[in-house]
Amino acid sequence: MTERALSFDAVAEQYDTARPGYPPALFDTIETLTGRPLRGSRVVDVGAGTGIATRLLRERGADVVAVEPGPGMAARLRLSAPDVPLVRGFGDALPLADAAADLVTYAQAWHWTDPARSLPEAMRVLRPGGALALWWNVSDRAVPWIAEQEARLREDAGGPAHGAHGTGTRDRHLPTDPRTVERRIPWSRRVPLDTHLDNLGSHSVFRVLGDRATTAFLTRERAELLRLFPDGTVEESYVVELTLTYRPTGPSTP
Ligand SMILES: C[S@@+](CC[C@H](N)C(=O)[O-])C[C@H]1O[C@@H](n2cnc3c(N)ncnc32)[C@H](O)[C@@H]1O
Description:
Diverse_substrate_MTase, alpha/beta, S-adenosylmethionine-dependent methyltransferase activity, globular, methyltransferase, 39% helix
């Protein structure tokens, strides 16, 4: 798992430029659910990668610390968000003090952790009453071309196209606290075909497939998508799947 979890390092620049961000509605929803503005909040963004979510949290005025294990991803984050403190480490053993954060976030990264460890670690680092927010950009399979692309990828990957269109609910190992809430936030972006293919190719499933199979797949996808989007602009549709839970305010933590 660790090797694949850190496979993004090989494609850090491509990841940073081609992966989608997250819509303002996601951050509005987190503020509404927690009843607290991000501005001035102490946020720990775990599995921060190249800083896609970190930068957006920072733009909302949060006081963010990024945690990232991968050297390539961390190097890119240092360039893209030089003023954000960055700690090298894993969510399973956070190198941070107890009760140091109002909010711990995992943007597309929770599924790489061992939740038996990462959940108590997040609770330890949160102040009592603080919130843990996990989210994923999941491709909207209700859109026919996205469902068809996933079917082609499944065929090539010889099994579940894990990760290429978002991991969805099945891999999450979610917190079971009764106050846990889930929200689905649809959004879309229009990008050049090259950006879409770079985005697709930055997923970990392609590190497993290898260069030759990846090139063959992406070449076929280009031809397929040009038929659908002859002007070369692809509309990617997503649903952000958000799960938010809290550290209890009582003396014990789960
Ligand atoms: C799909 S990327 C998400 C990056 C970023 N949060 C974003 O929204 O683009 C997953 C990140 O999790 C990191 N990662 C892998 N295993 C991890 C672990 N056990 N704890 C924390 N981060 C981990 C990877 O190095 C990678 O940067």
